[in-house]
Design a protein that fits this description.
This protein is an alpha/beta fold. Helices cover 30% and strands 17% of the residues. The strands form two sheets. An eight-stranded mixed sheet has the order 2-1-3-4-8-7-10-9, with helices on both faces. The longest helix has 16 residues, at 25-40. The N and C termini lie far apart (47 Å). It binds thiamine diphosphate (TPP) and magnesium ion. Its cofactor is thiamine diphosphate; [4Fe-4S] cluster; Mg(2+).
Length: 290
């Protein structure tokens, strides 16, 4: 692990500057992620980031850690492969609402069900922003976008209720305009052992004039300030459906459960990367199949 005293947010600089639009919610998420890594003492060599395709995924170019950019929607298969190969390595997924819940929706449900020890940071702007502002699966009814000029008319996917129902063991929501609290939620999510989601309300300043920083600021409140306890699925689901004049943020649900790596006998003693490559007795192994 990197030495926390030497780490600063500058430790993750690549020398490239962000190309995000000035004011994009991605900035708040990026700074919160860097703050969280510094707080946990995870330097560029101590963590693997898997990026989706979208404005969020462009972070790959200005964030120095072990990392890869997957195909659009395929962050979770890649992340689970990395976790199987080297399960002590923290793996964080930088995904979008389109990437993670549209193209990658099926992977998302099955990853939540398996409970690998990975964290999904979901940049939830209700839009496909990189492709210039089409409605994403989380777009709310009535929202007018390039692809829905009369307003969205179908039901949105709710990342929180979907994750809780599918079996995720840490489910939280943050706001890109509150970096201090978002940092805390990311630290908690990465420290949680199991599949963790931080769904992040993220204003898109270019393609969305409705869900602005002011819009969210007037509505968001913290569950923990109201004595909420995240230990009951039914209560968590009810809270996760709350959306309107008041929008809850914080930890909706958390439970301890064996991870997919815990259940994998082949890596019980040693991570796969630390295991010897040679096959001890190839002839007797082959004889089983002949
Ligand atoms: C298989 C495939 N389909 C479609 C695209 C085009 N595409 C690139 S980014 C994107 C949407 C990104 O939306 P989201 O994940 O919400 O990211 P954001 O830009 O909002 O951060 C799409 C559809 C692609 N690159 N690959
Ligand atoms: Mg998006």
């Amino acid at each position: 692990m990197g030495s926390q005293s030497e780490l600063t947010i500058a430790s993750y600089d690549t020398g490239k500057s962000p190309t995000w639009c000035p004011g994009c919610g991605d900035f708040g998420i990026w700074i919160s992620l860097k703050n969280a890594l510094v707080k946990m003492g995870l330097g560029p060599d101590d963590v693997f980031l898997v990026y989706g395709i979208g404005c969020h995924g462009n972070m790959y170019s200005w964030m120095k850690t072990y990392a890869c950019e997957g195909l659009h929607g395929r962050t979770l298969p890649v992340a689970q492969g990395i976790k199987l190969a080297n399960h002590p390595l923290p793996v964080i997924i930088i995904s979008g609402d389109g990437d993670g819940l549209g193209e990658g929706g099926n992977h998302f449900i099955h990853a939540a069900k398996r409970n690998p020890n990975v964290t999904v940071i979901l940049h939830d702007n209700q839009l496909y922003s990189l492709t210039t502002g089409q409605a994403s699966p989380t777009a709310k009814p009535g929202f007018k976008t390039k692809s829905t000029p009369e307003g969205v008319y179908d039901e949105p996917i709710n990342p929180l209720t979907m994750s809780i129902a599918a079996g995720a063991t840490y489910v939280a929501r943050g706001f890109a305009g509150d970096a201090a609290y978002l940092t805390q939620l990311i630290v908690d999510a990465v420290n949680h052992k199991g599949f963790s989601l931080v769904d992040i309300l993220q204003p898109c300043v270019t393609f969305d004039k409705i869900h602005t920083y002011a819009y969210y600021r007037q509505r968001v409140y913290r569950l923990d300030a109201e004595g909420y306890k995240p230990d009951n699925k039914a209560t968590a689901l009810a809270k996760a459906f709350e959306w309107g004049d008041r929008i809850p943020t914080g930890v909706f649900y958390q439970e301890e459960k064996p991870t997919s790596e815990d259940r994998e006998a082949a890596i019980a003693e040693l991570p796969l990367v630390a295991q010897p490559l040679e096959i001890p007795d190839i002839d007797s192994m082959l004889a089983e199949f002949i």
